[in-house]
UniProtKB/TrEMBL annotation:
PROSITE patterns xref list: HTH_ARAC_FAMILY_2
Pfam families the UniProt entry points to: ExsA_N (PF22200), HTH_18 (PF12833)
Protein name stated in the entry: AraC family transcriptional regulator
PANTHER family: HTH-TYPE TRANSCRIPTIONAL ACTIVATOR RHAS-RELATED (PTHR46796)
Domain HTH araC/xylS-type: from-to ranges: 164-262
């Protein structure tokens, strides 16, 4: 079987649509393309490539079909599984430091053979039965640690995020649509401390600041980059286009459409 003939499957917990990555997961792309963004860098995953998506990061990713086809394998490496694995195997730490949410993995026959071995275990829904799930995840993790020993520093770090520079973090991550509890956790603060520090730094509530910051970026993209509202509202953290239009007009007194028309037909 060719590697591109692998069908989609998920091993482990269900994949969350949230832009906060709660657990590590491995993803292999057989068909199509995946675009990822972590607030700092853009990533592209092409057919035949794989990567590790890291927990306790904000990340956004979307799929691009090729001839209406998109096939992927996602395998979760959640903390409960990793703790059991750590007790069973000797783990060597490498003092590897990386801030990337998406860690590209090298192509190797071991990964190819592993992926091909999954097919007999699929059920009709594209999942692997629980009886074999942990065995296959253990096999994958042994392969990954052999190919990338430095991943041990990422996968077996069970600590919580340390206290971060709040202003720098928010300016980098304001486009992500996650709740205040997640933002507080990622900056190493309790929710009450997060709100208190936020007010001190920005003289604004987090919710109000986020809306205003996103709208400022939207105005820049529309006026200076000639981008269309429908193409940018999701990337800026708005859940639907109508809410984006409403908030934009409330903030600037004109709708995005009116601003585009004014730009096309200036009075002076």
């Amino acid at each position: 079987m060719k590697i591109t003939e692998i069908k989609s499957c998920i091993v482990g917990p269900a994949l969350s649509a949230e832009q906060f990555i709660a657990e590590h997961f491995f993803v292999f792309l057989a068909k199509g393309k995946m675009n990822g963004y972590d607030g700092n860098k853009h990533y592209v995953l092409k057919p035949g490539e794989s990567c590790l998506v890291r927990k306790n990061h904000l990340a956004r990713y979307n799929k691009v079909r090729d001839n209406n086809e998109f096939e992927k394998v996602i395998i979760f490496l959640d903390e409960a599984f990793l703790r059991v694995f750590q007790k069973k195997h000797s783990i060597v730490f490498k003092k590897f430091i990386s801030k990337d949410a998406f860690v590209k993995l090298k192509k190797d026959d071991l990964i190819t053979s592993f992926l091909l071995s999954l097919e007999p275990y699929y059920n009709n829904s594209g999942n692997i039965s629980p009886a074999f799930s942990d065995l296959k995840r253990e096999e994958l993790l042994l392969i990954l640690l052999q190919l990338h020993p430095e991943l041990s520093d990422i996968l077996f770090d069970f600590g919580i995020p340390g206290r971060l520079d709040l202003e720098k973090f928010m300016q980098q991550n304001y486009k992500f649509n996650v709740n205040m509890e997640r933002l507080a956790f990622l900056t190493g603060r309790s929710l009450s401390a997060f709100k208190r520090d936020f007010k001190t730094i920005f003289n604004e509530t987090p919710n109000r600041w986020l809306v205003k910051r996103r709208l400022q970026e939207a105005r820049f993209l529309i006026e200076e980059k000639n981008q269309k509202p429908a193409d940018i509202y999701l990337d800026l953290g708005f859940e639907d286009l109508s809410h984006f239009y409403f908030a934009f007009k409330k903030e600037f007194g004109v709708s995005p459409g009116e601003m585009i028309e004014e730009k096309k037909n200036p009075i002076f």
